[in-house]
Each structure stands twice: as structure tokens, then as C-alpha cells.
Fold this protein.
Amino acid sequence: MEDVTDAGIYARESSYLDRYVQLGAASGRVLSVSFPEKPEDDAADSHPVLERLFEYLEGLEAASFDDVQVALTVPTDHRAVLEQLRGVPYGEQIDVATLARMTPALDPDDEADVTLVRTALDGNPAPILIPDHRVRDGPSAAPPAVEQKLRSLEDL
């Protein structure tokens, strides 16, 4: 598993995204990934997961972040959706109904379950690590311009 033991906030500017990539980590887990225009004042610029995110953004790695522990402090039903989404490989795309079908106890024909999937995607605390940009008809927790660049990067 990826070592994310250094607690803190880490950020670096991405020329590809035209904004910063900011990572929050604590207790050996990633807490969040965000894309601010300006990072937190106390953000450091070096962290192993941040390095891997930049390799991905530079097209150097067909990324799989399965080994990175993400602290999913979200409702249990949202966690189930996001955990299934982590299994969608680089360069592949699914739709909301397929993600609902992949998630135990959800029915893709039940509007409440489809809404639950959309809500989980919208509240995703760690875009890229939990690749909501790979769900073609769902919301992303990343800003729209970032989502489009991530899709372009993977030819989606």
C-alpha cells in the first residue's frame, strides 16, 4: 500500500489543469483531493501520492490508485458506490446505471438508487483517486473544466 503517513495539506500547480491539485492526508490515508485556484497557505509541495497524481496528469502512468488508502467519511451507501467506482480501470467509461448495477443492493431501475449514485459522485472527496470522471452521465466532484481535462487525458 502507498505510504501516506505524513499528515497535512499538500499542493502543487498543474499546468495541464490550469489550477492547483491539493491533497489532504492524515493517519496514513488521503482525506481529500481538490483543485483550488490558490492552495492553502501552509500547503507543502511534496507527498508520494501527489507525485503519483502528477505522473498521471503528465501522461506518464496509466493510473491505478487502488493501493492508495482513501478515508471515506461519507454515508455507508455512498461509500459502497465510491468503492465500486474505484474498480473502473483507466481509459474505461461507464454510466450511472452501470455503477448502480455494480453496487450491491442497488437497482439501476429504481430512481431513488440512481439518485443515490449521483449524490455519491457529487460528494466524492477524492476525485482522480476515486475516478468519477469515468462516469459519463454522472456529476463529478471536480470542477467541470478539470473533469473534461481528465476525460481527455484518458481518451474518454
Summary: The first strand starts at residue 8 and ends at 14. The beta strands are 8-14, 19-26, 29-34. The radius of gyration is 15 Å.
